Amino acid sequence: MKQYQLYINGEFVDSSSGEVSDVINPATEDVISKVPKGTEEDVDQAIDAAHKAFLSWEKVPSTERASYLHKMADKLEERKEQFVEMLTEENGKTVKASEDEINTAIDYFRYMAGWALRYEGEILQSERSNENILVYKKPIGVVSGIVPWNFPMFILARKVAPAIVTGCTIVLKPSQYTPNTACEFAKIVDEIGLPKGVFNLVTGKGSEIGNRMAGHPRVGLVTMTGSYPAGSKVMEAAANSITKVNLELGGKAPAIVTKHANIDLAVDRIKTSRITNSGQACTNAERVYVHESVAEEFISKITEAMKNTTVGDPTSRDSDIGPLVNKDRIEEVSEMVNNAVEAGARILTGGKAIEGKGFYFEPTVLVDVKQDMEIIQEEIFGPVLPIMTYSDFDEVIELANDTEYGLSSSIFSENLHEVMRAANELHYGETFVNRENFEAIHGYHAGRGQSGLGGADGKHGLHDYLETHVIYLEYDENYKG
After folding, report:
1. 248: annotated active-site residue
2. pLDDT digits (tens, 9 = 90+) for 7-53
3. 47, 154, 322, 447: which has the highest count of C-beta atoms within 10 A?
């Protein structure tokens, strides 16, 4: 049985509560570790340590800060097998998916380290002859990073790496469901000798400590990935101190299959986009709109593809998907499918939880759904694919945009005009054309509406960790020395 501690100011310590939480393996329902139940007092100590560390850390040359990211990447690579095993155990994603995630986290640390000498300010022209206007980009300060359970290592890297390289310090809170990999990462931080207070880890429930992380007056940025309800609470708490927020929230990604689509390609990519992480990703294809002229072929082939998806032990390389993360997810997905059926939807394959140990749900295809159904409007976060048909392009653009979310979208078409209309008329932060839904680390992952504020990845994501300081430098133009 693994037992973990908090990591505050370079020390492993117990929570002030003295209490611990059980972490459950979603494939076996066994308890695999115990982690501290952090308190607001623990958060305060971590933020105070981060604030004190920031005063000196921001002065460290960026190349030296980046060297620690390389060390993190090297250590992760050395222990990749261990982290893959732990990630599969705590999250339930397949070993293949866990390998992809750990590899991406390693790449992310190295990629962000490369920005050490790249991010820059400006020199502006002045209307005065004896003045220069200098625009500095400086670290925003202490970062509160709140990490979800669906990609616990990738999103840890997504928050830690830009914070470290820009000169910020960070207090990280992993999900209560998947804290083990973050706790093991804290050991890496300790081993590489990162200065005390630059990285701090507090475990616990977001409902108990999230508001303090967001609302603490010494926090310069709170970056949170999670649900819309949780994001709105974080934003409300941050408002008390007018703290900058970076929120990646839910999604309801439409996939449009036009009459000019390569159907086999669309089936393959949409299936991948639906079952990634057992359907538990904000970029997953959550609803499909297929042109009525190709609907019969597409629906037949996607139903067969979903039916042939192997659900099983996530440690097996023969499994395509593993369990959902916890019992609550099974109950919520089951309820959404049942509600859709009661409202007139028809199940072509799947439709229910799998009996036995573990939180498994059958890959599911639904047809005869309507635009106003919950299954079309609300995030499913499970391997369930509702399909509607459409007759003309104006109609499908309107249907695709009919949502409160605005993160990811996709279109499958060999017709340039359809693709360009979609690119210009879909109201989303991302549109994937003839490919699966997953972003690049050097792109920019950002949504609209209830999908959040700000973004991540690439140079644009890095800038959220910086603030602008303008210097008006006036000098004596007659000075002779």
Report:
1. yes
2. 999 999 999 999 999 999 999 999 999 999 999 999 999 999 999 99
3. 322
Token pair, residue 449, equals 């509406």
Torsion from C-alpha of 209, 210, 216, 220, nearest 10 degrees: 140
- Residue 136: Cβ within 10 Å count: 13
Which of 184, 248, 286, 362 is catalytic? The answer is 248
**In 3D, which of 339, 353, 420 has the Cα closest to residue 382?**
353
* pLDDT given at position 481: 86
Q: Where are the alpha helices (DSSP H) in 308-439?
A: 327-342, 374-377, 393-401, 416-425
Question: Residue 400 — very low, low, confident or very high, per pLDDT cuts 50/70/90?
Answer: very high
Tokens of 257: 């299959």
**DSSP secondary structure code for residue 361 in this structure:** B
Non-local (6+) Cβ contacts of 142 within 8 A are 47, 50, 51, 54, 168, 169, 170, 171, 216, 218, 219, 220, 221
Q: What tens digit of pLDDT does each residue of 293-352 get?
A: 999 999 999 999 999 999 999 999 999 999 999 999 999 999 999 999 999 999 999 999
* Ramachandran quadrant class, 432 (left: phi over 0; alpha: psi -120 to 50; beta: rest): beta
The rounded distance, in Å, linking the Cα atoms of 288 and 388 is 6
What is the tens place of the pLDDT at every residue in 40-71? 999 999 999 999 999 999 999 999 999 999 99
Q: How many Å from the N-terminal Cα to the C-terminal Cα in the chain?
A: 73
Catalytic residue among 101, 168, 282, 430: 282
Q: Determine the pLDDT at residue 1.
A: 83
Residues 457, 154 contacting (CB under 8 angstroms): no
Torsion of CA 458, 459, 462, 466, to 10 degrees: -170
Report d(CA 16, CA 34) in Å as an integer: 15
Residue with tokens 């949502």: 403
In this structure, the strands spanning 364-367 and 346-349 are antiparallel
Q: Are 119 and 137 in contact (CB under 8 A)?
A: yes
d(CA 334, CA 211) in angstroms, rounded, equals 31
Q: Average of pLDDT values for 392-414?
A: 97
